[in-house]
Amino acid sequence: MTQQFLFEVKDLAVKYPNGELALYNVNFRIESPTFMAIVGPNGSGKSTLLKTALGLIKPVRGQVKVLGYDSVRENKKIRKLVRYVPQRDRIGLSVPLKVKDIVLMSRLLKKPPPRFASAKDKEMARDALKRVNMADLWDRPFPELSGGQRQRVLVARALAGDGPILMLDEPLAGTDHESQDMIVEALGEYRNEHEVNIVMVTHDLNPIHTLVQDVLLLKNTVVGVGTPCDMMNTELLEKVYGPTARVIEYAGHRYCVTHDSGVDRHY
Amino acid sequence: MRDTDTVLHMIQELIAIIDLLIQTLSVPFVQRALIGAFLIAVVASTSGTFLVFRGLSFMTSGVAHAALGGAALGLFLQHSGLVPWFDPILGALLFSVFVALVTGYAGETGMTEKMEVAVGVSFALSMSIAVFLMYYIPPTQVPQIWGYLIGDILLLTNFDVALLAVTAIVLVLITLIFNKEFIYVSVDMEGSIAHGMNARAYHYLMLITSALAIALATKAVGAILVYAIMVAPAAAASELIKSIRGIFIAVFVIALVSELMGLVASFTFSASPSAIAGILAAFSYVVAMQIKRLRNRVSINLDTLPQHDEEVNHFLLDALDASAHEGYDH
Ligand SMILES: Nc1ncnc2c1ncn2[C@@H]1O[C@H](COP(=O)(O)OP(=O)(O)OP(=O)(O)O)[C@@H](O)[C@H]1O
Ligand SMILES: [Mg+2]
Question: So what's the ipTM on this one?
């Protein structure tokens, strides 16, 4: 079998209509299957990269291939494979959708109208909610949940779906340590049980560095790409997070210290 | 003896009222008004609810006024002899679709703020066109344009009712088939596209059908009533009710009750039914806000002062009493 690439990005540049050059000179390849983290500070183009891969934004230069499909010409095929969760603040709260409706979205969106939920859909949704310990909130209005709870429900939405690629934009933003652990654990467990790719955007490598295989350090262009171990490198982190970034070694473990993170152990 | 007298008297009175009611109900224009009220309530609970979900209640007024501009254009084309077959309603529909398209284009990325600006601009544009064209329309025809603004549910023609009925049926069908799509577009446009749904198409479908419905309703009952009935009940219901189906039903009920009370008021003392219905609908929103605030206050009191249950109950009863009186005053 030939090696499949989750991402094959060549000479990519993305510009917004207001002239903002969000990404330039982006080149990298990631083998499939993987658990991948895209790391970088605010405005470094992480969300832009995901949206470009989904064909939501057209590059001004270069191309992105997702599992071999071109993001512009073949975005229909990519969208069949993907379960995507945007940043939490992109989810509108003016409609009193129930938690179950939000989780069912990833399954119902891939059906033709009228998109009725089958017993299997509901079972998958319930199972996904259990994985993030939210099954009790099945019938609660989503807009009434706390930020961290909403985040967990959105992760469940990705887990409930079908398709070999999960793309999660900042699933850990605004969550406390407990929620963070729960989400990270749920993702890790899911990945062990299923042959899927997980792509996760985050500010902070520490909570996930024990799970991820590939890390892309981004600051509007690729600063580094490799294993978490390789990326735990003061020189690289300084490029992304500025001169306060540190990696410290203690008792045989590496710790990554940036303004965006606390300290965490790297095995 | 006295008791039976009063009871008899009451029964007689009741019979007289029922008699009057039956008489009134057999008058064709009253029947048309009642059917019209029902149909407008259907439009409100479908289009009105989706627009409020989408954060676009302002579009109702934009479209209603654009319809007026379009009607002016239609009259102008007819009377200047440029396009004699151009009925004003065609102009109204054309302009309302124009507003929907401009709004939709501005909102393709899912940003509500941009859509509001687009509505404002196209609103101003179509009103300006209306006023501009009025100079060139025979003065006898000008009231027809203003009819779009003020309108009267008591002056519905059979054709108006038929048009409204078709609109309502189409809206209900589209809502039954595509309600999930419309909701997904409102909640998570980006995610919907990323999962392969043609969100852009549904985005436009919702805006255009709503615009057409608003224009037709405006032609029938006037912009004021349409605006009052389309926005306030949906806003009131979504403040209080935590289920989507519940909101649809509540909007329908609030809209229908406001309209019926408007009609009844217009029979008992001479008043514009649209105005009364509008005031009642707006009032439902105020009441909803009040109830919501009360609920919050009560739950806070219960949380922080569990030992003062008694007091809280008194407070709640007093407050409910007060708001009930407020309600009956009108
Ligand atoms: N819709 C938009 N229009 C114009 N510029 C944009 C838009 N979205 C993002 N940008 C710009 O593109 C750059 C990258 O933004 P992006 O949202 O991809 O960053 P990010 O890494 O996801 O940041 P965050 O951590 O805050 O989510 C930023 O400079 C931002 O200002
Ligand atoms: Mg982002």
Answer: 0.89
